[in-house]
Please model this.
Amino acid sequence: MTDLPETMFAVTQTHDGYSGTATGPVIEDASDWLAEAELPLPQAGPGQVLIRMRMASVNPSDLHFIKGEYGQPRVKGAPAGFEGCGEVVAAGQGAEGLMGQRVAFVAAGSGAWAEYVVTQAQMCIPLRPDISDEDGAAQIVNPLTAMAMVDIARSDGDAFVLSAATSQLGKLMCSLGRDLGLKPIALVRRAEAVEPLKELGAEAVLVTTDADVIDQFAALSKDLKPRVFLDAVSDQLSEQIFAAMPNKARWVSYGKLSAEPPRLTQMGQFIFMGKRIEGFWLTQWMMSTPPADQMRVVAEVQARFADGRWKTDVSTHLPLREVVSGLADATKKTDGKIMITP
Ligand SMILES: NC(=O)c1ccc[n+]([C@@H]2O[C@H](COP(=O)([O-])OP(=O)(O)OC[C@H]3O[C@@H](n4cnc5c(N)ncnc54)[C@H](OP(=O)(O)O)[C@@H]3O)[C@@H](O)[C@H]2O)c1
Model:
């Protein structure tokens, strides 16, 4: 076994449980939610592995989580961070097969924003050597969600709508949609994102700050008849887009980037047009999708990153010891992931 230290540096949560607020994934000062700590090295129990972190990503879910606004409660004093990649340096009973491998992981035991992480072996994916650490650290949450949600979209026609299309997930879904012969209609809030998204595969790109964006969308909707709206923003404009979609349209809310609570204005559409609102959460998908199907999706995800059809855009590499002081500023940069390094 590798020589392991007795303690490790970690960025820990400073609150317990839920906050009851819904302020969105924005932070002004990370020290409101996070602290630096030297913790005992976590131990891998049966079915678990200990991973030496090489890189950890910062997703909107991490920010929702540390603020107490995510689907699971915070644990004060435990390391933050859901996703990353690293080497397996110790393995509990039944997980020995992963020893020494470089894996992508979702943390389920102690968080990813630490020098070492404990998680279940089932939450690890061995990485091919041709996958970079940047792609490895963002290999699970967004790519699996992109695969699962584009699958929902293709079950209902060829055109679909997606919001926050400049997000990493939005970009993955645009190019996957194009590759599958679908027509992604992308919503963005910055005009300079229009051309890059068209190049990535969007059939049409609308800028949500245009005064007549709903009229533009209504015209497109009449023509392309999108029946699925994959929505990460979930605000009043989302409701207006949904109201302009054709009969049997589904509003699939999977993120809450905007803090604005939407108000429903067209209740008759649920009665007379068969429209539906629903949610998507990857955690639920993982619990309900048979392991063999998940393995097929995982293999396709790695193939897409390895051959360059997908890539992870990175805005900043942030050392672990600078997370508390530098995370808020790093989140101001747009169009790429913050990657935490040991
Ligand atoms: N439900 C699930 O299972 C699941 C799984 C994975 C991800 N997600 C969700 O998917 C979304 C995207 O995740 P990601 O990791 O791909 O994000 P990301 O790469 O960090 O990008 C976030 C993007 O959101 C845009 N944005 C931020 N606030 C916005 C607002 N108020 N209105 C419109 N756009 C806004 C920004 O656009 P600009 O370029 O204009 O600044 C930025 O490009 C998040 O909501 C995340 O929580 C959900």
About this structure: Residues 59-61, 141-142, 145, 164, 166-169, 189-190, 232-233, 254-255, 257-258, 280-282, 334-335, 337 surround NAP (CB under 6 Å). The chain has two domains: 7-138+312-341, 145-283.
